[in-house]
Amino acid sequence: MPLLIHKRPDGTEKSLEFASKPLIVGRLPESEISVRDAFISRVHCGISYVNGQFTLKDLGSTNGTYRNGARVFECALAPADKIQVGNTTIVFEVDAKSGNAILRQVPQMVAPPSTLGGSTPPRPDLRQVTVPVKEPLIKPSTPTLRPK
Q1: What is the rounded CA–CA span in Å between residue 18 and residue 14?
Q2: CB under 8 Å to 85, separation ≥6 — which residues?
Q3: CB burial of residue 55 (10 Å; 0-12, 13-18, 19+)
Q4: In CA terms, which of 9, 14, 50, 128 is 20 to 30 Å from 137?
Q5: How many CB atoms lie within 10 A of CB 122?
Q6: Digit-coded pLDDT (tens) for 2-11
Q7: What tens digit of pLDDT does each residue of 115-136 get?
Q8: Distance of CA 53 to CAs 2, 11, 50, 101, Å?
């Protein structure tokens, strides 16, 4: 039976064996594939190997599990599939020689610190524009009761 190798953004790897239960991707440190992302569930999704096929199954996550941009509940995985859980992207690959599955976790993009209220002076080439919002001209009608 093939292994699952989780390649983390920091360069470390973790090899896991498939069993009768899926390997859990989640926020908990106890998860087989632990991902530090506040937008994924503690038990988010699972990856299985059954009858020669790798499968991905959402395990009732709050924000959903996506494969190649489409929300999935259960699906077969193919090499180069991009799995999105929360703000984390994981690329699924299969090693041609060993047949082992590889999950390559893509480093998350971090936004630069906000300059609002910071020590950086405002840029003169950028202006903040405020536009007034008009009230709607049509007022909601109140239902009237008519005697019969």
Answers
A1: 13
A2: 25, 35, 37, 40, 44, 45, 61, 63, 65, 66
A3: middle
A4: 128
A5: 10
A6: 899 999 888 8
A7: 555 555 556 566 556 666 666 6
A8: 11, 27, 5, 11
Nearest CA among 45, 16, 55, 11 for reference residue 32:
16
Would you state the structure tokens that stand for residue 27, as one six-digit string? 């926020």
Note the pTM of the prediction, 2 decimals.
0.71
Contact 47, 26 (CB under 8 A): no
Rounded to the nearest angstrom, the gap between the alpha carbon of residue 144 and the centroid of all alpha carbons in its chain is 50
Among residues 27, 16, 23, the alpha carbon closest in space to that of 48 is found at 23
With CA atoms as reference, report the closest residue to 25 among 71, 92, 70. 92
Is the Cβ–Cβ distance between 55 and 74 less than 8 Å?
A: yes
Query: What is the arrangement of strands in the sheet containing 101-106, beginning at the earlier edge strand?
Result: 13-17, 3-7, 101-106, 88-94, 82-85, 65-67, 70-72
- DSSP secondary structure code for residue 87 in this structure: T
Rounded CA gap, 2 and 103, in Å?
Answer: 13
Contact 93, 102 (CB under 8 A): yes
